[in-house]
Write a structure and sequence with these properties.
Helix content is 64%, strand content 12%. The protein is of the alpha+beta class.
C-alpha cells in the first residue's frame, strides 16, 4: 500500500531561509511570556495555594452540575469537583479559607450541610500553603530535570549540538505555554504541570524525527551545503509532521469540547503545546544547527572536519 502523503514529494520549501523571521518571532514570544508572568503572575490552583480536599461517594451516579451549583453559592471561593474511579466517587477541592484551622473546619461543615446526608464522606484533608510551596518546587524541579534528561539523551544519540538545539526549542515551548496561562489566567495546577511534561515529550519526539533525517541526509548528500541538507530534511518529514499534528489536534479538540470543565485546561495546554512544538521543531531547532559548528565527522567519519567546516561556514551566514 502506498503511504499517505498530504504534500507532494517534489515540495521544496525554504524553511531555513525563514529562520531570522522565526528567531525574531520566538524571541518576542518568550519575552512577552516572561514579562506577562512576572507582572501578572499565574493563577495557581488549590494544589499550589492550599485548601481542603473532600472525597465523597454518592448513592447514585453523581450529578456534578448540581453539586457544583450547590457549592458555588456558599461563598467559599474557588471550588472544583472531579470524578475519579467510578461515577459515584467525587473529589471536591475548596480553596484555603482565610484565618486559622477553625475556619477551615467550619468550611468543611458548610459543605457537608449543603451536600446533605445522602453523601458518604470517605476522606477529608487540608492542604496547607507549605505543601503548596513544596508542590511548586517539585513541579519546577520535574520540568528542569526532564529538560536535563532530554539534553543527555539527545547528546548521546546524536551530538551535543543536536541536544542543545532541542533543549532550546523545548525551553521555548515551556516558557511560552506558561506565559499563555499567565496571560489568560487559566488555572495553573498539577494537571498543567502534567501537560507541560507531555508537551516536552511530544515536542522532543517531533524534533528527533527531523534530527534523524538530518543525520541521514548529512551522510547521503555529501556534496550538498548544510542549508540544503537541513531544508531537504524538513521537507522529507513534512507530510508525517503535518499528519501527526493534525490527527493529535483533532483528538485534543474533541477532549476540550466534550471532556468537561475538569480537563479543559489540560486539553487547552496540550493544543497550544502541539502547535508551538511543531513550529519550534521545524523553524527553531533545525535552523539553530547552522550556528552550532555542526560537522559530519564525529560519528560517521566519512568526511574531514576541515572540508565540512569550510562548506558550512560558506553557506550558513
Amino acid at each position: 500500500m502506498k503511504p499517505l502523503r498530504i504534500v507532494p514529494d517534489s515540495l521544496s520549501v525554504n524553511f531555513i531561509g525563514l529562520r531570522r523571521i522565526a528567531f525574531a518571532f520566538s524571541a518576542v514570544l518568550v519575552l512577552l511570556a516572561i514579562v506577562t508572568t512576572a507582572i501578572q503572575g499565574l493563577n495557581f490552583g488549590i494544589d499550589f495555594r492550599g485548601g481542603t480536599l473532600l472525597e465523597v461517594r454518592t448513592e447514585e451516579p453523581a450529578d456534578l452540575e448540581q453539586m457544583r451549583n450547590s457549592l458555588e453559592g456558599l461563598g467559599l471561593g474557588e471550588t472544583s469537583l472531579q470524578l475519579f474511579g467510578t461515577d459515584r466517587d467525587v473529589l471536591i477541592r475548596i480553596q484555603r479559607q482565610s484565618g486559622t484551622e477553625e475556619e477551615q473546619i467550619e468550611a468543611i461543615g458548610v459543605v457537608q450541610d449543603a451536600l446533605g446526608d445522602n453523601v458518604e464522606y470517605r476522606r477529608t484533608e487540608f492542604v496547607g500553603p507549605t505543601v503548596g510551596d513544596e508542590l511548586v518546587e517539585a513541579g519546577t524541579m520535574a520540568v528542569l530535570l526532564s529538560l536535563a534528561g532530554i539534553l543527555i539523551y539527545i547528546w548521546l544519540r546524536f551530538e551535543w549540538q543536536f541536544g542543545l538545539c532541542a533543549v532550546i526549542a523545548l525551553a521555548h515551548d515551556v516558557i511560552t505555554t506558561i506565559g499563555l496561562f499567565a496571560l489568560i489566567q487559566f488555572e495553573f495546577n498539577l494537571s498543567t504541570i502534567a501537560a507541560l511534561l507531555t508537551i516536552a515529550g511530544y515536542s522532543i519526539n517531533d524534533t528527533v524525527v527531523v534530527f534523524d533525517r538530518v543525520r541521514e541526509n548529512l551522510r547521503r548528500y555529501k556534496k550538498a551545503s548544510l542549508v540544503e541538507v537541513l531544508n531537504r530534511s524538513i521537507n522529507d518529514v513534512l507530510s508525517r509532521t503535518i499528519l501527526t499534528s493534525v490527527t493529535t489536534l483533532l483528538a485534543l479538540a474533541a477532549i476540550y469540547v466534550f471532556g468537561g470543565a475538569v480537563i479543559q485546561n489540560f486539553a487547552f495546554a496540550l493544543i497550544w503545546g502541539i502547535l508551538i512544538g511543531t513550529y519550534s521543531s521545524i523553524l527553531l531547532a533545525v535552523p539553530l544547527l547552522l550556528y552550532m559548528g555542526l560537522t559530519r565527522t564525529s560519528r560517521s567519519g566519512e568526511e574531514s572536519d576541515k572540508d565540512t567546516a569550510a562548506r558550512v561556514t560558506g553557506t550558513a551566514s
